[in-house]
Amino acid sequence: MAAGKAESQYLHVLSAFLAMEPVDSVISLARECSGGSLTESVQRFLWETCVKAAASGNASYAKRLLKKLINEVELEKSEVLDEVYEEYALHMSAASKEDTLVKENIRITKFISFLFPEGLYKHPSCPSSRKLVVPLQCSLNMLEGDTGCSIWPSSLFLSEFVLSYPELFTDRSCFEVGSGVGLVGICLAHVKAKKVILTDGDLLTLSNMKLNLERNHLNYEDELLKQHGEAESTRVKCIHLPWETATDSELSEYRPDIVLGADVIYDPSCFPHLLRVLVALLRGPTKRDNGSLETERRSPAVAYVASVIRNADTFNAFLTLVDQMDLSITDLTEELKPPYELLPYMHSYDRSSVRLFSISSR
Ligand SMILES: C[S@@+](CC[C@H](N)C(=O)[O-])C[C@H]1O[C@@H](n2cnc3c(N)ncnc32)[C@H](O)[C@@H]1O
Question: Are 356 and 331 in contact (CB under 8 A)?
Fold first, then answer.
């Protein structure tokens, strides 16, 4: 039992390192492995298993972690491992590229590990290793046009939701608006959604998303291939879909069972367009030319939208428009909150800040 606990604590440290959590947070998780102090074996784990073996490819992050580790061990008046000093010296001699990375908007790769607790061992979405590790290329800069290349808390929440309730998504046709880095789509593919249609209005975001699908070994169909008549059977599609210009006839092609959106409720000027897109996607069966009704959907379509409410007025403006556009919205946060934390090591992710809504046609 005690060995199992220690193993899971070390797994949290490694997962936090790979997800590039703040170094303070990684060190505090490391302390938990040894009852509070940064013992030799904890230092060795950070040096050997995290920095040396699992290096995330971001040398300046590893350097910051080593610096923090050395500072804290010295403050404790304990011995810093020679190997830790040597590794830090190696990183010191390489010029720091961190500032350049942020300035030039160069992307880094974070590895998001969803850790399935023992109780979920037989769960349909639980891999045999009990962890699903998703590499994601993203930006260090959340703003300045790189919004869609960052990982936002609502997509972490929606991903936990998808993995916790696979039965809602398996064999369903799913359509995401504002997909960003593509994390939710990767989780949808993992639970075997029938179709995964990922969309974004920003072209740079879309190309970053495609790269992430490739890194996760997912074949996707993009619009260019479609024009050449290839890749028809691919389950994942990536589509450039700015809400402002998406036409009703374009949207009526998809008829998804489920629409998803993470952190897309923040810019009031986009709300009428976003809601028009939702209305078109959630619309019930329409008549075919021969007068019969389309019956492809098993049940009425629903949208699951996760959001951090940063400004109450902005959110109320969204609710008013939802009502005017004949949609109904329900807060499902308490009812459908993922029952297990699949990202227990990720202290930077405040799960309680995210609300989950369902939106459907009235
Ligand atoms: C805050 S980010 C959230 C990204 C991702 N869903 C997540 O939670 O990590 C908002 C996303 O919506 C996309 N977006 C914003 N306005 C849009 C619009 N008018 N049309 C289409 N996509 C838009 C952005 O490009 C970005 O990817």
Answer: yes
Q: State the Cα–Cα distance between residues 7 and 5, nearest whole angstrom.
A: 5
- Reported as a single tens digit per residue, the pLDDT across 302-361 is 999 999 999 999 999 999 999 999 999 999 999 998 888 999 999 999 999 999 999 999
261 Cα–ligand 1 center, Å: 9
Sheet holding 195-200, edge to edge: 220-222, 236-240, 195-200, 173-177, 258-262, 302-308, 354-361, 327-331
Highest mean pLDDT among 56-60, 147-151, 292-296: 147-151
Could you report the per-residue pLDDT of 196-233, keeping only the tens digit for each? 999 999 999 999 999 999 999 998 876 655 555 544 44
**Residue minimizing CA distance to atom 15 of ligand 1:** 178
Q: State the amino acid at position 50 in one-letter form.
A: C
Per the CB < 8 A criterion, the answer to whether 185 and 256 are in contact is: no
Residue type at position 303? A
What is the SS3 string spanning 289-346? CCCCECCCCCCCCEEEEEEECCCHHHHHHHHHHHHHCCEEEEECHHHHCCCCCCCCCC
Nearest CA residue ID for atom 12, ligand 1 = 178
- Residue 236 near residue 219 (C-beta atoms within 8 A): yes
Alpha carbon of 200 to ligand 1 centroid (Å): 6
DSSP state of 147: G
Judged on CB neighbours under 10 Å (0-12, 13-18, 19+), 281 is buried
Residue in the structure block whose two tokens are 């491992």: 81
